[in-house]
Amino acid sequence: MSNYTIQDVSRRSGLSEPTLRYYEEVGLIGPVGRDEHSGHRRYAEEDLDLLQALACLRAVGMSIEDMRTYQANRARGRAAAAEQRDLLLRHAARVEEEIAAQRARLGYLREKAALWDARERGDGAAEAVATQRSLDAARRLEVLR
């Protein structure tokens, strides 16, 4: 039975109403049932389950196309298990790369803060060490560009 409004589903899934409409438009969900009197969308419990899964995939940065692939593989079940695993592992590798990049950025910021801390204290030796460490951190950032 279709009994959830788009507002209900938005609150429960964390996806905005425009995103829900877009996902229907591009075929990730739906077609969504309509109230016979008002014509407004009415989502079923199964729609909610699917949308919560899509919200998680979106949160990890998965593209619409990969979401489609994920759904197609999910529908195929065990026969697509290897493809599903590989899809998820590719995304896990991308997230690991993003984490490494963020750590490099964080390292640079901390080293620069240490340099300025040493400068504020007038500690020339600590400033020299911090300067070198900042340069090393900056080189790690260059790799990210």
UniProtKB/TrEMBL annotation:
Pfam families according to UniProt: MerR_1
Every HTH merR-type domain range: 3-73
Record keywords, A-Z: DNA-binding
UniProt GO MF annotations: DNA binding; DNA-binding transcription factor activity
The keyword DNA-binding is assigned to this record: yes
Top-level taxon of origin: Bacteria
InterPro entries membership: DNA-bd_dom_put_sf, MerR-type_HTH_dom, MerR_fam
PANTHER family: HTH-TYPE TRANSCRIPTIONAL REGULATOR ADHR, REDOX-CYCLING DRUG-SENSING TRANSCRIPTIONAL ACTIVATOR SOXR
Protein name stated in the entry: MerR family transcriptional regulator
Organism of provenance: Streptomyces tabacisoli
